[in-house]
Amino acid sequence: MTTIIQCQQLQKKFRGTEAVKNVSFAIEENTITGLIGHNGAGKTTLLNLIAGYTHPTAGTVRVFDQTPFNNLYVSSNTMFINDDMNFPTSLTLHELLQMGATFYPNWNYPLSEDLLRYFNLKPGTAYTRLSTGMKSTFRAIFAIAARTPLTLFDEPTTGMDASVRNDFTRLLLKDYIEFPRTIVLSSHHLSEVEHVLEDVLILKNGEVLMHTSLDSLREYAVGMSGPKSEVEALGAGREILFQQKLGTEGLYQVVENHFQQEEIETAKQKGVTISGVSAEDVSTYLIQPKNGGIEDVYNRSE
């Protein structure tokens, strides 16, 4: 497969603060990758580097095998959607769609017009007069209709109602199947976009914790619940992603999944239940501080 994005030891500092720290990864052509992390994880800075909006402090970023900063080829083949995206204030939504059709060669004009009607956006309205959620919806329409070889979404569902968020992800997947391209989609919550993703890139404090397929993330960890002593013995020597007390004698732990079938059978005999852990929970445990759950906060304060 063709590599669309290649980062090697990529760094970005702002006034001495490292927003992106020695990041290395590659994203292949015609894939949908979820960029997952909390606020301040470096998601927006990384997307700005990929889009060519800013240049690295150190390391390299290559897009279409070119340096993206101030690169006309990269900018004309990339759509970067974020809250700061601006449109000409003198144009209506209908005129903005017409403008997009003249700039992007793969533009699907009938689809853009149909989506404007579907989401009840008035063609004669100015973009600046839209609510936050409607602006997000229009930006999503614009990005999907453009069908650029690379599309970057930075928290695209801000302000959208739940039903509109669902429509957006369904629309994104349907159009991707019809017209494959490379898409990077950032989000705080994996569950909101999980059903459209193939790969996941997890950031924490500016560093890549994991870049893997969604299927691999789903199998990365298991949960163990049962008597505290037995759970601790079974989890000994394994990375503990999360743990929480269950009553006075019980314990729940989430650990890396390296169990053999015979270990699982032995655990059952000792009263320990081993269960799957959702991809959303695994990503949450990976990026959150290892301070336990909210119950542990109360337990420590008592």
From TrEMBL:
GO terms for molecular function: ATP binding; ATP hydrolysis activity. Keywords: ATP-binding, Nucleotide-binding, Transport. SUPFAM superfamilies: P-loop containing nucleoside triphosphate hydrolases. Residues 5-230 form the ABC transporter domain. The keyword Methyltransferase does not apply. It holds the Pfam family ABC_tran. This is ABC transporter. It comes from Bacillus coahuilensis p1.1.43.
